[in-house]
Amino acid sequence: MSSSSAFDGVDPEIRALRASSFGGQAAAYAEERPGYPDAALLWALEPVSGRVPLRVLDLGAGTGKLTEALLRHVADVVAVEPDAAMLAQLRHRLPGVRALAGTAERIPLEDGSVDAILVGQALHWFDLDRAVPEMARVLAPGGVLAGLWNLDDDRVPWVKGLKEAAASTVSFKQWRRGSIPLEGPHFRVVEHAEFAHGQRRTAESMAATIATHSHVLTLSEAERAELLARVLDYLRSTPETAHGEFELPITTVTVRALLG
Ligand SMILES: C[S@@+](CC[C@H](N)C(=O)[O-])C[C@H]1O[C@@H](n2cnc3c(N)ncnc32)[C@H](O)[C@@H]1O
């Protein structure tokens, strides 16, 4: 297993910069990013769903998008997040949740203390060589690790066009589906599933969402302004998105792995 295998050919400095960029727009992130569909969470948790109590860790929790979705199904959720601004948003929005500063490579929890670890849009930022054994350490026997990604569905032509309009100088393929290497001495039975999802957007709120993406956050101010103007032009001149609200089609790609 190699820590770079989800990002072959990507400059590690750009990757590190992008991984730590989200706090710069933490409030906008909380406002604009989509949540997660229940079907994806339930599928991810299915291998441990009979456990009482069911203890779940939201790792790389950001502003708490996935935490909030988990709370619809699970009472015992702990959130861990390294970025102080993202963590502050999470604590503000979900004051009742236990929320800790920490990373996937150094999780501030006891051995075997959770039944499931769910990771929203963040597994690809982890140093897997260190994070995989660390995640295995905090899971109880038979526990499950799941990664979820909300991907704009670019099988739809106007979404493909939007992605092209929003490409930046630090864009890279976010991950090749199925390329996060979880199989190994710690995890077995790795399974994938996809769930249809969506988000109501306008041209303006869609541009605001794109402004919270790491390939935009890490640009210079001038480059960012140019990219967002290009995106707005595209959305305002594309029939599907030019007139008020539209539905952004999203596929929630989910992978789950059982502790061996
Ligand atoms: C795209 S955001 C996703 C946030 C949240 N999970 C969600 O679904 O909205 C990626 C998050 O991963 C966090 N992150 C980056 N590197 C990390 C690491 N090594 N360990 C834990 N979290 C990390 C970032 O600080 C950021 O909050």
UniProtKB/TrEMBL annotation:
CDD domains, per the entry: AdoMet_MTases
PROSITE patterns according to UniProt: RRNA_A_DIMETH
Alphabetically ordered keywords of this record: Methyltransferase, Transferase
GO molecular function annotations of the record: rRNA (adenine-N6,N6-)-dimethyltransferase activity
Keyword Transport found: no
Highest taxon in the source lineage: Bacteria
Cited Gene3D superfamilies: Vaccinia Virus protein VP39 (3.40.50.150)
Domain Methyltransferase type: 57-146
Matching PANTHER family: METHYLTRANSF_11 DOMAIN-CONTAINING PROTEIN (PTHR44942), METHYLTRANSFERASE TYPE 11 DOMAIN-CONTAINING PROTEIN (PTHR44942:SF4)
Similarity remark: Belongs to the methyltransferase superfamily.
UniProt protein name: Methyltransferase domain-containing protein
UniProt organism field: Streptosporangium canum
